[in-house]
Fold:
Amino acid sequence: MLSVAAGGVTFVALGAIYKSWRDQASTYLYLGLIIWLVSAVCWSIAQGWEFGVLYTLCMPAILVWPFIALNQAFLPKPKNVPEPRGFDFARHTVFVNAANYFVVLVVLLVVSVLITLGMCALLPFSIAGQLATGTVLLPILWGLIVYHYLATAHKFKVIGAYAALSVTCVPLLVFLPM
Structure:
């Protein structure tokens, strides 16, 4: 029964936050957040804190859909609809795209692995902590490097700079005792 009450309190919290958005009144926002915290306590008492936190975070995501449907608006069709670009299978375009594909998926992956391992080797953690840090850091660093590579017009300079940085990390990995 407390679970049903917690769901109702969550719905009331969403309603208060919705009203704060509609009226642009921060009082309803604070009231909605306080009610949402009360619902978190109710969910935790009813289902245990493990599931209570899960329900507290997930229920608003599910219950928000009626509010979204209530405010749905259909815009008129735009007057100038852009035409999609056609496929371009010219040799130069295919070569450039294949080269970018290879650089991003092979070269920049190897570069980001070397840089990540070199940075993590300098950390004052145990080997398990260094590997855990590397596991978290690697996709972030690889994404940033790929974004920088694809955003710049001077791709060879970027590859050269990242290659030089990764080459400086190789002696760290080879000669630094673990």
